[in-house]
Amino acid sequence: MPAITETREQVEKLGQSSYKWGFETDIEMDVAPKGLNEDTIRLISARKEEPDWLLEWRLAAFRVWQTMTEPTWAKVTYPPIDYQDVHYYAAPRKKPGPKSLDEVDPELLRTYEKLGIPLHEQALLAGVEVPEGEEARLPVAVDAVFDSVSVATTFRKTLAEAGVIFCPISEAVRDHPDLVRKYLGSVVPAGDNFYAALNAAVFTDGSFVFIPKGVRCPMELSTYFRINARNTGQFERTLIVVEDGASVSYLEGCTAPMRDENQLHAAVVELVAMENASIKYSTVQNWYPGDENGLGGIYNFVTKRGACRGAKSKISWTQVETGSAITWKYPSCILQGEGSVGEFYSVAVTNNYQQADTGTKMIHIGKNTRSTIIAKTISAGHSDSTYRGLVRMLPKASNARNFTQCDSLLIGDRCGAHTVPYIENRNMSARIEHEATTSKISEDQMFYCRQRGLSQEDAVGLIVNGFCKDVLKELPMEFAVEAQKLLQISLEGSVG
Amino acid sequence: MSELLKISGLHASIDADGIPKEILRGVDLVVPPGEVHAIMGPNGCGKSTLSYVLAGREEYDVTAGSVSFMGQDLLAMEPEERAAAGLFLAFQAPVELPGVNNANFLRTAVNAVRRARGEPELDAVGFLKTVRAATKNLSMSDDMLKRNVNVGFSGGEKKRNEVLQMTMLQPKLAILDETDSGLDVDALRIVAEGVKNLRSPDFSALVITHHQRLLEYLGPDRIHVMVRGRIVRSGGPELAKQIDVEGYASFLTEAA
Ligand SMILES: Nc1ncnc2c1ncn2[C@@H]1O[C@H](COP(=O)(O)OP(=O)(O)O)[C@@H](O)[C@H]1O
Ligand SMILES: [Mg+2]
Asked: Where is each ABC transporter domain found (chain B) (predicted)?
């Protein structure tokens, strides 16, 4: 049975209660009808009052997508997705949000609490209408994405004073059309791959960041993505452009409530770093992974790529992936500028029946380019995790360097971990180093910890956090703490 | 309560390639509160097995007998419950935990045990104060707190780290499994001091050792000799002296 069909009933129930169906109704139109054709795309574009060039770009992407087939090389299996059985547009409900945390789904709050998210941020994440002036106390600028449309943006003023643009991408299309037009699709072309093409055709929102020459972004930028409406594919598109000598640290975090259906997610993130620019992109991904029997969970097919265009530019990806039923994700760096640097620090945790195929691509084009890959894979339960990485040294990449370290940690004996490194070297002076280890949490270690009074869960948490230390230390502080707890929560029930 | 620990007719075996192999074959032993007892016995007689079974290692099957600890049925408890109840095992071979900071491990353990005992947790400052004092007493450098648990520690450092954990966790009963093996004279004295410092009416120790020297420092109340999975003789400190001179030969026949 196609994955999406399973939940038709539930969506229909929702539709009867709070959702108005279709664009034909004359009152509020929250959800586009299911299905994907040129009309859907025209509707999305019209709803967002987009310029013609963008509509044309979407349509071109759609035409390419129609000629493509889903990639099958990843080590993941799932029932066929019926792309005509998905809603491609969902605006937030116009009905007022909860007035206080008391009105919010307690399950959702429990997740936030376990993660140690501060109360005022919990309120924001849960869509509580924050009183005037309250948001100014947030520690980081948050552009919260609820479903497909950004509904809250803070700290705009401080950022504006520094000349930084941080806004929903649809707003950027309206207010900074030249910038968007110049860079959109310049790193991940519309027809790059099946999911990227789909995203280009139907993306509804995401963030846009522009840091002008010489500016160090005065605060860390954060977007909390949350999937809210049922059975709505999420097609975020994020574009970050950092000019000469400028820098930014961008945090993307996801905490999701329980969901009992499969949801399709195909985001695209494009990063552009000019001369001496630096971009640090950190992700904590915790989407609903499905239940302990492998039912439900998010399908996460993401294309993330950064272009180090200028000399001595640097792009650093750090990710902690604990969620989703299926993860298909390879944040990559194109190292074009001379002496540019690419980094990939990753922790991927799978438990129960989760499947992850993730890694990175480091494409060395310029001279003296350097890349570092540290990938930690943790598998528990019946899960399966694959690190898939490509290091490519092109003929002009003289003296380029790569160091790759892939470590797998197995918990129990029903899970799998695989390392698939692809190496292509077309320059004699380039150097590539690869190290890989596989280990298990031993009975000795568990017993030692428990003899000292630790519960099995605390013991696993401690050992796993130790295993991931080299990656976690790359995360900004507020994320590192959250990530540590997340690792432990994700592995609950994996031992004993 | 005249006994802190009471072991009666304890039999335990391990699965050796599908065949149960009996290692403990009827151990009887009583340790009253406030006393230090020693277990001596030839290699392979089951001393470490006894300490593992008492601490709750799951690989061993207890086939007969009972153990009460502070009046509770010890064998019914999870390893971490035993630790919270006040049982501590200094491992013969301490285990390495790569990437796990030693101070962090110690604080997590101390607070887990305090929580279980209904005591307030130590905050970072309180913990640091206590642990600094303890490391100083054991002539350990602060550097060892920053390293990963037992990773790259010398044999002596590992043993001292065990004693540090013991000091911090404040057990009612500490089982020390050959903590003195492989230590030089100075280290041995420091470890012995570590145990002696804990001596009180509320603290007992069961010291597994081959060496007379540690016992001279500790002044044990009783010596038990274990042979082939049984305690074959118990007596005063003079028993240790006898073993030091004569070895185990005379006890081996006793056990037959
Ligand atoms: N996991 C095991 N598998 C098989 N035999 C074991 C295992 N553990 C211990 N033994 C055996 O049990 C006996 C007692 O071992 P141990 O308790 O370590 O002795 P001791 O500490 O007194 O030297 C030895 O013969 C040893 O080989
Ligand atoms: Mg032994």
From this structure: 5-253
